[in-house]
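Posting here for the record, re: iron/sulfur cluster.
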Amino acid sequence: MTLRIWESQAGEAVSNSSSRSCNCQSRPGFTRRSFLRTAPGAVGGMAAMVAALSPLKDLPEGSLPSVEEFMQKHYKEMSPEEMDAALARMSREVEDRYGVVPSIKDYKPLEGVQFVYALNLSRCIGCRKCVHACVEENNQSRSPEIQYIRVLEMPRGTTDIEEGNHHYDRPTVPGDTHYYLPIQCHQCANPPCTKVCPVEATWKDDDGIVVIDYDWCIGCRYCEAACPYWARRFNFGEPSLPKDKINPDMGYLSNRPRPRGVVEKCHFCLHRTRQGKMPACLEICPVGARKFGNALDPESEVSQILKTKRIFVLKEEVGTLPRFFYYFDERYPRDDGNSPESHAEPVEASE
Amino acid sequence: MKKYCVFLSRCLALSFVGDWKYYFWMFFLSVIALMGLNAYTQQFVNSLITTGMTDQVSWGFYIANFTFLVGMAAAAVMLVIPVYIYKNHDLHDLVIFGELFAVAAIIMALLFVTVDLGRPDRFHHLFLRFNFPESMLAWDVIALNGYLLLNLHICGYLIYCAYCKRKPTRLFYIPFVFIAIAWAISIHTVTAFLYSGLGGRPFWNSAVLAPRFLASAFAAGPAFLILTLMVISKATDYRVTHKALMTLRNIVTVALTINMFLLGSEVFTEFYTDSAHVASAKYLFLGLHGNNALVPWIWSAIALNTTAIIILYSRMSRKLPALSVACILLIIGVWIEKGMGLIIPAFIPTPLGEIVEYTPTLNEILVTLGIWAFGLLIYTICVRITVPVLSGQLTVDTQLRDRHTTTTPLRGSSAPHTITTQEETAR
Ligand code: SF4
Ligand code: SF4
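Prediction output follows.
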């Protein structure tokens, strides 16, 4: 026992002096014996650690945020100058990466506007032109492929979307026994997706569009789980799009190229619609099935549709209050009288 | 303060000392943890595309393990309640082992959420703009971190008192113990609400989810503790009484029974109603349109849990080997049920009726194993320190006595000495 104490003291002295010269940290409890036993372990441990971290050297350039990006504030907290600086940074990044000088602006919601979408199911032929127009307009990643609009091929006689075929592939559309149901973000008036976001990276703007700050999202995908319409997409990989496919007219909250690891979705083409243009999916539609406009303007086409058509929304029971309406061509019989289909006379109701 | 630093440094030194079994176990865990770190680095470089997750199944293995571990952490209270509310003293010292496990489990759970993030580099956004009280995830962040701090405080304080040979001041820990009891129930409830609050996912949107979470947690957690205590009694001279283990066994039995009952109620409601909402449950239990990746999982979970229940109710389980078998079966069963059986089917079919199946990739599995190994590493170290302190082999006195014998009071020179003597007594 005495011997051991002496030994440990001597060991301590030795390891203390040697530790100073070899610049290891002197810790209580280091005797020569334990030092000899620990040192190879420590060296081995460090080597293993370095080996474990080695894939970091393949980290693609630019995948770590720049200081500017790291310090950037939440969209709603930026001053106009800060916003300008952020837009300038983004524009620089797009130029470096795609060789195109974009125009990135921060489009604000317009006063007195509530956007709604209406889709005529009697007309839609399921050609998926809207799907691709959307991808081109909004600079979506081509690989991995991201699309905001999903068109379901529905057998006639049901509105149960679980019956829909997502991957129909026929030489000519429409099929004889089907109708087509395109689905994209419904810009819910009571959106479950914004409620769940832990960092408020997504919110409902004043004109009703649900937007995402791609520089704020932490990529938890809770919103993706919360959306009842499967409208949200996540950048699981580094988004890639060919240089010649870039659309240079960009908005901060809409179609600027997204970084990896964040969520995106349809935003009613807000960089177009907040300037009075129509969404890309509407413009491409060959049969005019898509209608878009301001529900607060009684003269707008969508207001007329909401008033006169038999409209419905998907999954009304989940209470999300979508502003994306579906309708069929047939009007309500109780019309203002000037439509040709309006022929039904009011019938006395029986008990 | 100085005394506290000495205590910490001695703990650190102690965690590097043990017999060959200890070294082997620690080496094994370290290797796996490093493999996990390597896999995570791969994921960090290449983004989440290295996992099996898709837009259709947007949460997978990580969140499944997270859910399970939150439950395990909450289960520490099942030891605390008998001791502090019912004054059951058999379990008194064992409470610390439960709470230490809670600490390790919470650390693992937090790691699982972190590796699941698409942008871990933006973690600080949580501090800058926190969507509280709207987002249940924000609640969960508070609940988990609060629980971690509470348990760190309680265990740290009690162990340090034992080390100083002081009687713990009740005021410094009893109030926290009671807060921790409520808090433990809340962490699991909040985590259940995270899922059950989503109207768009009928498979989760059920009121029975939170009670089911608690029941399964209170089965799996104490079962894990039974196993740990058996290992501790084997590997050290710390004695765990048979009676304490039997108390735990009773807790496990009751909780598992309730869990099976709740599972049964859920299955009945889903299948008897047979509404459109049953699709996910059908996929899980029977397979849907020829897709049945999860069917073998859930049925093995049910088989494991049923076997465990049978063993637990029979007299066999008074014997330790049978009890340990039951505990292992049950932990695996609950792990499957809470993980693969609860998180993944909610995404299949998608809200638009599309069926995309999910299998974790190798990289994802390695990250998962790595986190588990890291958590067990932490827990092993904690237990390694706690056992000698609680049994009075490592106290402030052992050091003082050394100070007297040492002529030159080199600080810390005593540590290796006490450890060797204590090692000898252990052998
Ligand atoms: S459709 Fe989905 S993503 Fe769009 S607002 Fe509604 S819940 Fe959010
Ligand atoms: S993925 Fe992004 S937007 Fe969605 S909830 Fe998480 S942080 Fe919010």
